[in-house]
């Protein structure tokens, strides 16, 4: 008996994916650098399906049906290259090497090109949903050559999460497209969590609402257009009381946010692509600032607040304030999605990917951390799933909005939220509560819709100190003013 797929790297993610394949009826060959993880998996979960434990990579490959499908789930970085280097001599043209870890998309592009030169398929897939998702159904974003999806796609779709019958898995685009889209998913996730944090801070610092009561508020928000996994678990965390102290858990957790790097990668890529993803970048910076414990401690002693008094809203005003914050959260969240999707469009142009935003939004509807009712609306705004990436019928991607905020439903929703959004940002500024994503998202919105931007002055300054030239609004051409001469204008 040959296995349908081999998995090498059986730490928590690899083991859970292997079990997920087996539970879906696939025969799974197992390998791990050190044998103990393989044995533990078979001992604890061997009854969940058909596993073929192996001792070496050679044995793993020997036990695979053709075309061989080998899924690598080892530590990201050099270990992935090490495993690929060992595998390549054992494989034959048409075989598929899959990297399902959190690899950087540039590494995936490099690896794909190297393996294509040997007639091997290399497929980088983004997997979201954490440990639980890997076991029970993650969102899966596969890149690599499209033809590889014929042999691999059905397996991945079977183990993925499903939203109303649609698998949260579809071919994304060539080479590193899958890992790129997963990276942007994580960038959006950072922004999603930051706007929740800003709402919590405002409700508490300005609204005077304690965590236990906020849990109820977030729970009720989960029945609105904010309905999402992250809002749901915010209610859980805010409602949790620390057993040792009897305080809300959120009050005993050190207020320094960690990060593993995918948000930072998104911000860096946004800068490289010239993509204005301020809300996402601000959410990364907010985590960095939170972690600067020493400088924060000094700042608390040295820096003035300069805030006026912002009275806590009472009774009916309090309900209105809570609703304002909810609308500001929703609008800021929409902007961070708009920025992330806009960045995907920029990347598609840069790397020659044909990314379908409707399909991508559809994959995030379940299984992943940013899963939200909103994503179904976003998918529909972009014309649904592209059927060529998925066997089920759907609609074509024609007539997509060039920015998510231009889709009629979102344009109207933001218009309705705007007065509240502006009030909330103004209140936060007056109260000295930092709201980097609420405010940056609002500035992005205003920047987009503004008739004239001060960029004209920036161009004038650049021309003054560096003869960088400028274009005129009233006629074609490129111009320079002779600033240190008679200040006449010449055509450059
Ligand atoms: N999508 C998600 O939600 C999510 C969540 C967590 C992690 N991840 C990603 O998934 C991947 C796996 O994560 P993980 O937490 O399960 O495992 P991990 O801790 O990142 O890596 C441990 C695994 O890598 C193996 N390994 C390390 N160096 C190796 C080398 N040079 N050669 C061969 N094997 C090597 C280890 O083998 P030994 O047992 O022999 O040490 C072990 O199986 C990573 O890319 C991670 O970033 C994704």
Automatic annotation (TrEMBL):
Pathway: Carbohydrate degradation; pentose phosphate pathway; D-ribulose 5-phosphate from D-glucose 6-phosphate (oxidative stage): step 3/3. Keywords: Gluconate utilization, NADP, Oxidoreductase, Pentose shunt. The keyword NADP applies. One of its GO terms (molecular function) is phosphogluconate dehydrogenase (decarboxylating) activity. It is an enzyme of class 1 (oxidoreductase). It catalyses: 6-phospho-D-gluconate + NADP(+) = D-ribulose 5-phosphate + CO2 + NADPH. Its EC number is 1.1.1.44. SUPFAM superfamilies: 6-phosphogluconate dehydrogenase C-terminal domain-like, NAD(P)-binding Rossmann-fold domains. It holds the Pfam family NAD_binding_2. Residues 178-484 form the 6-phosphogluconate dehydrogenase C-terminal domain. Gene3D superfamilies: 6-Phosphogluconate Dehydrogenase, domain 3 (1.20.5.320), N-(1-d-carboxylethyl)-l-norvaline Dehydrogenase, domain 2 (1.10.1040.10), NAD(P)-binding Rossmann-like Domain (3.40.50.720). It comes from the Bacteria. Homodimer. Catalyzes the oxidative decarboxylation of 6-phosphogluconate to ribulose 5-phosphate and CO(2), with concomitant reduction of NADP to NADPH. PANTHER family: 6-PHOSPHOGLUCONATE DEHYDROGENASE. Belongs to the 6-phosphogluconate dehydrogenase family. This is 6-phosphogluconate dehydrogenase, decarboxylating. It comes from Citricoccus alkalitolerans. The lineage of its organism: Bacteria, Bacillati, Actinomycetota, Actinomycetes, Micrococcales.
């Amino acid at each position: 008996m040959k296995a349908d797929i081999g998995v090498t790297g059986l730490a928590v993610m690899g083991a859970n994916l292997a079990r997920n394949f087996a539970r879906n009826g696939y025969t799974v060959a197992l390998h791990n650098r050190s044998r103990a993880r393989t044995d533990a998996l078979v001992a604890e979960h061997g009854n969940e399906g058909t596993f073929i434990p192996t001792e070496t990579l050679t044995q793993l490959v020997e036990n695979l049906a053709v075309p061989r499908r080998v899924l690598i789930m080892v530590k990201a970085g050099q270990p992935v290259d090490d495993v690929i280097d060992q595998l390549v001599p054992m494989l034959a043209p048409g075989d598929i090497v899959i990297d399902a870890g959190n690899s950087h998309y540039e590494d995936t592009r490099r690896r794909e090109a190297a393996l294509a030169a040997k007639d091997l398929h290399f497929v980088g897939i983004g997997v979201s949903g954490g440990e639980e998702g890997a076991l029970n159904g993650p969102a899966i974003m596969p890149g690599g050559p499209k033809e590889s999806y014929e042999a691999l796609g059905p397996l991945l779709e079977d183990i993925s999460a499903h939203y109303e019958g649609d698998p949260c898995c579809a071919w994304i685009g060539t080479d590193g497209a899958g890992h790129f889209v997963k990276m942007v998913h994580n960038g959006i996730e950072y922004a999603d969590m930051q706007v929740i944090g800003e709402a919590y801070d405002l409700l508490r610092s300005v609204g005077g609402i304690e965590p236990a009561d906020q849990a109820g508020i977030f729970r009720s928000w989960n029945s609105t257009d904010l309905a999402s996994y992250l809002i749901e678990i915010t209610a859980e965390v805010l409602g949790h009381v620390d057993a040792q102290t009897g305080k809300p858990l959120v009050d005993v957790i050190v207020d320094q946010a960690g990060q593993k790097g995918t948000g930072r990668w998104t911000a860096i890529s946004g800068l490289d692509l010239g993509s204005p993803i301020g809300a996402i970048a601000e959410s990364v910076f907010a985590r960095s600032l939170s972690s600067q414990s020493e400088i924060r401690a000094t700042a608390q002693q040295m820096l003035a607040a300069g805030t006026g008094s912002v009275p806590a809203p009472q009774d009916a005003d309090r309900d209105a304030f809570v609703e304002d914050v909810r609308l500001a959260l929703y609008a800021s969240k929409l902007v961070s999605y708009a920025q992330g999707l806009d960045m995907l469009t920029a990347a598609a142009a840069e790397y020659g990917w044909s990314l379908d935003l409707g399909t991508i939004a559809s994959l995030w509807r379940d299984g992943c951390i940013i899963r939200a009712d909103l994503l179904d609306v976003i998918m529909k705004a972009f014309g649904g799933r592209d059927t060529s990436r998925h066997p089920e019928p759907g609609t074509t991607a024609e007539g997509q909005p060039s920015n998510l905020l231009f889709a009629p439903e979102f344009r109207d929703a933001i218009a309705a939220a705007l007065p509240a959004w502006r009030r909330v940002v103004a209140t936060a500024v007056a109260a000295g509560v930092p709201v980097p994503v609420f405010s940056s998202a609002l500035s992005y919105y205003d920047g987009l819709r503004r008739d004239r931007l001060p960029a004209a002055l920036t161009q004038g300054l650049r021309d003054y100190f560096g003869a960088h030239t400028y274009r005129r609004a009233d006629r074609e051409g490129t111009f320079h003013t002779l600033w240190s001469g008679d200040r006449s204008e010449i055509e450059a």
